[in-house]
Amino acid sequence: xxxxxxxxxLQKEKALRAYILRMDLLEQTQSLIxxxxxxxxxLFIQVYRNDQFDTLNLVLIYNGQxxxxxxxxxxxxxxxxLTAPDQHDKSPEGQRSLTLPEFLDExxxxxxxxxxx
Length: 117
Description:
Elements: H1 3-16, E1 22-28, E2 32-40, E3 43-50, E4 55-62, E5 65-73, E6 76-80, H2 100-114
Antiparallel strand pairs: 1-2, 2-3, 3-4, 4-5, 5-6
């Protein structure tokens, strides 16, 4: 998924998911995009895509700390699991590729488990 496709998907998912209060486009060029999907003032999903380096970072942040995330660097995925968000989970599950909607589904599960909005 390139930057322009990702932007379309972000807008679609924001419209479909009532818990996403706002979408802030922080940076965009032809080959990169950085967006925050706000759930609450200190709770948001940050999405970063760089087409040139085939990088995609999807992260759930609460009070300035990563709670959960999935990254694709050079076409290879890893996960930052809820139990160890600073570690790279390179297990088969951690390396599983996923779409933005699938990541948002995972975020919903994390939020429910933590009792967050």
